[in-house]
Amino acid sequence: MRALVCLDPGPLATIQDRGRFGLQRFGVTPAGPMDRLGFEAAVALAGGTDHAIELTLMGGVWTVEGGPVRIAVAPAVSVRHGAQPIAPLTTVTLQPGERLTISGLPVRGYLAVEGGFDIAPVLGSRAQHLRSKLGWPGRALAAGDRLPLAGPPPHPGERCLPPDAAALHDGAIRVVLGPQDDHFTAAGIATLLSATFQVTVEADRMGYRLDGPAVEHAGDYNLVSDGITIGSIQVPGNGRPIILLADRQSTGGYPKIATVIGPDLGLLARKKPGDPVRFRAISLADAEGEAQRFATRLARLADAVGPAGDSWDRSSERLLALSLIDGVVSASR
Amino acid sequence: MTVSSSVLLPPHRLLPAGDAAVTVEFGSTIDPLLHARVQALDAALAALAPVGLVECVPTYRSLLVVFDPGRTSHAAMADAITAALAQPVAATTQGRRLAVPAVYGGAAGEDLPALAEARGLTEEDVVRIHTGGVYLVYMIGFIPGFTYLGGLDPRLHTPRRVSPRLTTPKGSVAIGGQQTGINPIDMPSGWHLIGRTPLTVFDPERSQRPFLFAAGDELQFEVIDQATFDALASDPLAVPRDLGPVQAGSRGG
């Protein structure tokens, strides 16, 4: 049986798909990738599977047994096939006994394999939520784990994406105020939108706790609990914002001053403790426009995948397919 | 909820929660009537099934509506919510009244003697009062299957333990502050353990019914003996006895 073998998982490696939706009413967190664009780039490169391994900081060391496997890693990181460096956003075929070493991740990266893994979904999804032990194998991936490979062994011919296919803007993180911005003073909202915050060491898949000036509440900061969506910025009594992310709890009782728009969640996933965070409020209409553009960008990734090689790399059609120009312009507006 | 009272209901608010969700807020308190409106909208939206709806999360006082911004918009979801709110409220909610078997005291509920003493009651009193209550499942959150229950008799309200336990067993029936609840899994808890149910509240392998309870259900505890506990605990498919649909308007305001 072919299997991807983990020799070193790095600090944290889990299997993620697009998320376990429909069960938040039962307290089940969707989980899913922290960096959706990086995830979609990896799975598109791998040929369209719907799941990947989410890696953290150091991507670890992987090998294969029982036959070859084609691997895609995104966003652009340092990937070595034995001693040989692999071009960014380019697939690599690993033969039994060969090693793939991944480093230099923008905090998180995705390792997808052609054909996907032959592991059973739990409650309709392969996404791992470690705190509730949902998703195979019920814990973070560890050295010695064997991930059975689905599908046939790969045919010859590597694929690639343009180097900046998974690039995000580096501006302020865009938010829509609410749902509970009326629980804050005008000064509190101004603080959120003008200060530079820092990511603290309490930053994981569940959420990012920020350090910086206190965001002022208008009154009581204990609410009767209600639902929490991904990107919610809740502010507990000490005034320090917490951004709730993929592994968040489904309900909570602190006021939520604003919500990070979906297209900018990946910016947070690429930040580590000490990194600065600034916020910028945009209108709901603009947020919806950005969300639609982002959905289109994700959907076009598959069309932008081509055979590895210079002529295709530089093709203007592929850049158009990616709508990279659109993404960059809209982000800097 | 009666038809005549509906004209007196305060208006709901639509609060945007980013590009992909909206909170429909009915109020800010814990109130069975508010919760009934949350349940009614949840059921009506599910029946309407607007394009792009991903899921809804009912809570004490609001419904979080999650959607795919690539397939729909805030404006379209607001229209769907308005249409769903215009639906007549059904005579019954979708909730069920369920009987939860539990062993009280002893090894299953090691805090029962101390809690009884703190409340100036006998252990028998505590069990009688706890099993006499009807507990509304306001919402499920925190961890899979954890029920936020309303309706604990004030005589049993007890501040949480000064020092939480690092782990408490799955199935524990406990009291913390003004609430009572059941552990779906082994978990840390500062609540007082008074008993244990042999039912597995959440089991992802139980494909027909991974979750025993849903928001809008009403729970009643009933005392069982150890032999019954053992028999039910060895049956992975054991479920609570169904006492029938929850009657809308049966809840005290």
Secondary-structure element order of chain B, as H and E? HEEHEEHEHHEEEEEEEEHE
Number of domains of chain A: 2
Strand order within the widest sheet of chain A?
21-14-15-18-17-20-13-22
Please bin the fraction of helical residues of chain A: 10-25%
Number of helices of chain A: 7
Report the biggest beta sheet of chain B as strand number plus sense, adding barrel if it closes. Answer: 8 strands, mixed
E-strand count of chain A: 23
Radius of gyration of chain A: 20 Å
Largest sheet of chain A: 8 strands, mixed
Structural shape of chain B: elongated
Uncertain regions spanning at least 5 consecutive residues of chain B? 1-6
Tally the helices of chain B: what do you get? 6
Oligomer designation: heterodimer
Structural domains of chain B: how many: 2
N→C terminal distance of chain A: 51 Å
Structural class of chain B: alpha+beta
Distance between the ends of chain B:
10 Å
- Annotated CATH architecture of the largest domain in chain B: Beta Barrel
